[in-house]
Amino acid sequence: MAMTAGAEEKLRRIGFFTDSALADFHGDERLTELLGRVRQVMHADTAVILLTEPGGRELFAAAALGVENEVFQGVRIPFGAGFAGRIAVEREPVLLERVDESTVVNQLLWEKGLQTLLGVPLLSGGELLGVLHVGTIAHHGFTADDVEVLQMAAERVAVSVQTQRSQASRAAATELQRSLLPAGLPRIPALDMAARYVPGGQAGVAGDWYDVFVLPSGWIGVVIGDVVGHDLPAAVVMGRLRSALRAYALESVDPADVLTRLDRKIQHFEPGMMATVLYATLGPSFDRMNVSSAGHLAPVVARPGAAAAFAELPIDPPIGVVRDARRQSAVLDLPPGALACFYTDGLVERRYRPLEVGLNLLRDTVSPRPAGAVCAQVMAQLVGDEEPEDDVAVLALHRQDRGDLAPLELTLPAIPESLKEIRTSMRRWLSVTGADEEATDDLLLAVGEACTNSVEHAYGPAGGVVSLRLELRGSDVFATVRDQGRWRAPRGTNRGRGIMLMRKCCDEVEVEEGSGGTTVTIRHSVGDERA
């Protein structure tokens, strides 16, 4: 049967929007090309794409031809208001043959002189993405075929918009998540740390994160968490959780208290969101770790001379699930040489095996070794050559013992405020050497005096830096304090006794002054060498 002229014309017009016709156009260029073809095929003077924000109740001008100032002026149309708002609510084509303030919210359209408008919804899988409409200055009787052609064009526009959004969302989520993960873990004396993060290959970027920070009190905060969901929404919530938890950590060293506050914040400001979070705090001595879990898997703890085991602690409800949930903290012993391994479920969960298999494999892999070696072994055993389906985050903390203690090296501004950090770092480092309280106090006093001299006497108003290195050699600690200035002569009858005090506290003290600065070397025994 021969095709009628009208049918041939409709097919020709629809052909403008096929994949083959648009094969050479991508991204924003494809959307612009589509809009131009819509205006051409519909014999229209204007063509406009209005889009919605996810979860929003307004349309905003995303692209326009013939009335470009819609985009420039950021036009927004509430759902249900006027011509476009009606299409968004009814999700059906609308033909308008009277364009004025009584029928249209956007005054730019009647100021343009438009007489006729035809619009259709942009739909993808039942979800409203926006509205596509065309307009003519001359009265134009749009037909049923015109409506069908515009709906076909809207399908292609919706596909392009959805593709662009998915690509942009994943790229933004990946960038946001990586920007929120620590660029590097803090360097903390006597605490060896390493971490790994790998985004999921199939499910898209999720909301996994880890964090380590030093609090003003000298306590250490350790976090690992997993937001339910994927891509940009999960990454955004993850960022908010991370920032809020850090703020609450400044108010309390009790992990249960911090997670209680975090839960209250999320339930009020992010209703419907859920996350598992484990938060731990370590005091300045590192011998105990306080831990609270909001639905998160327990860490693996490996202690010298014992098999690795999952930490025994209560698992409370996840964040955002139970209002006013009672949260608890547990205390874990962390002797020198011990290691704690924190992780997200993407490390141990696989669709083809029970969760217990992955957990047991992790437990059998973790051992009290340097953190970097543990992370590498864990990833090799549990991920291997297989691309993970979900995000994987691993954080290992190893409390160093005397046998693997690295030298302590600090370079700080030569100001009084640096002296507190020097004392705190020294105390942590000396705790691993086995130094008793008397030897620790002697070294703190002697090194503190040398650093104070650099702060007070080495520099003028321009300031400078003071450097400290502590090294364990056998049963002796060698401390080296350096500055790049010249010590001023003592002022006052009770000043200038610092070197005498240092020599009284420690076994040996040497002071070298030169044009490049002053170096103080201190040696002091901290007891018998241990394995």
Characteristic terms for this protein:
34% helix; 13 helices; 531 residues; alpha+beta
Description:
Helices cover 34% and strands 27% of the residues. The protein is of the alpha+beta class and 531 residues long. A 6-stranded antiparallel β-sheet has the order 3-2-1-6-5-4. Strands 8, 9, 10, 11, 14 and 15 form a 6-stranded mixed β-sheet that branches. The protein is elongated. The chain starts with a helix and ends in a 6-residue tail after the last strand. Mean pLDDT is 87; it is low at 20-26.
Q: Layout of SSEs?
A:
Layout: H1 5-15, H2 27-41, E1 46-52, E2 58-65, H3 69-72, E3 76-78, H4 82-90, E4 94-96, H5 107-111, E5 116-124, E6 127-136, H6 144-180, E7 191-198, E8 207-214, E9 220-227, H7 231-249, H8 255-269, E10 275-282, E11 288-294, E12 300-302, E13 309-310, E14 315-316, E15 330-333, E16 339-343, H9 355-365, H10 371-382, E17 392-399, E18 408-413, H11 418-433, H12 437-457, E19 465-473, E20 476-483, H13 498-505, E21 508-514, E22 517-525
Parallel strand pairs: 11-14
Antiparallel strand pairs: 1-2, 1-6, 2-3, 4-5, 5-6, 7-17, 8-9, 9-10, 10-11, 11-15, 12-13, 12-16, 16-17, 18-19, 19-20, 20-22, 21-22
Helix pairs in contact: 2-6, 6-7, 7-8, 9-10, 11-12, 12-13
